[in-house]
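User: I'm writing a tutorial on reading structure tokens. Could you give me a worked example: one chain, its sequence, then its tokens, then a sentence or two explaining what the tokens reveal?
Assistant: Sure. Here is the example chain.
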Amino acid sequence: ANVAGGFVDVRSVPKVVTQPLPVSLEELFRGCLKRVELTCFAHAHPGIAVPIKRTFDIRVRRGWKEGVKIIFAEPGMAQEVRFVVYQLPHPLFTRRGDDLWCSCELTSEQARD
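And here are its predicted structure tokens:
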């Protein structure tokens, strides 16, 4: 329920916010820093939360795979924020475990060479 000034009853705020973190195959190979801005809730007073814009710096480590979760649970925040790595499609390669696959069409002459 809304309270004056954009404040909300902390009981109405979801305990966990989950956001996809889109990452390219190259970024997963090399590692990178992703900066994500998100509106989430912080405690203003006991029982009251206020929406705030936060910037999260996420260091994507080399070799991470789709599904890796990065969790921010900090004092003063009314919510736990979870980012889940989502691998963006690559135009040539697909990832199968730790292997990269590439499909291409060859003529029978090219296959013999």
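What the tokens reveal: The beta strands are 8-9, 16-23, 32-45, 48-60, 69-72, 80-87, 93-96, 99-102. The chain has a mean pLDDT of 90.
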